[in-house]
Amino acid sequence: MKRLLARMAALALGVASVLLLAPSGAQATGNGSLDVYQLEMSYNCNTKAFCGSDLGGFWAWAELDRNPVTGATSGELDGAGCAHGEFSGAVSVKAEITRWWVAPGSAGPTTLFTDEVDTSRFRGQVDVETLTANDTGVNLVPGHQTATSVFGFRPPPGVAIQIQIAYKPAH
Predict the structure, then answer these.
(1) Does position 3 have pLDDT exceeding 50, yes or no?
(2) Which of 142, 147, 154 is nearest to 37 (CA)?
């Protein structure tokens, strides 16, 4: 159970970590010269018997860019979370991904890893954290992923994870 909760938290942070800030608006939308991944994540855990005191959710959008000529990678993430257990309240998370890559990790052979700077805001408090070689727990494969595909079993009612990944190659 602790491992499962740790993986859920890693997923949320991973995607939050992705987990990503491109230097300009033009690059953030992909001008056609970059390979672009877009990730949308939704995580909810509202069953105390399963989640313990970690009730709440996390929702995020992330973009990963890769220059096919130089191999340089970057990205950004914008997310929000809320909790209704021991920790209670809402948090805003932004991540600047300075580098990302795919390698074997917690989500299998195509796990997303990042170097990033995360900025979170909670009740007027701002925290900045730098993560390196961060195993996000995200399987970077285009398509739809659910809690069942992420964890390998169907969670109880009130627990849901949805990850949607789209990929657009440079042209």
Answers:
(1) no
(2) 142
Alpha-carbon 61 to chain mean position: 8
Q: Identify the H or E element spanning 120.
A: strand 108-122
User: In whole angstroms, what is the distance from residue 141 CA to residue 163 CA?
Assistant: 10
Q: Tokens 């509202």 — which residue?
A: 46
Q: Measured between alpha carbons, how far is 2 from 57 in angstroms, rounded to an integer?
A: 17
- Please give the model's pTM, rounded to 2 decimal places: 0.79
Helix and strand numbers (H, E) in the chain are: 4, 8
Amino acid occupying residue 47: T
Q: How far is CA 110 from CA 5, 42, 72, 113, in A?
A: 21, 20, 18, 9
Q: For the chain, what percent of residues have pLDDT higher than 90?
A: 71
Q: Residues 154, 139, 135, 30: what is their CA dihedral angle, to the nearest 10 degrees?
A: -140
CA–CA dist 8, 150 (Å, integer): 9
What does the block give as tokens for 37?
A: 């991944």
At 30 the pLDDT is: 53
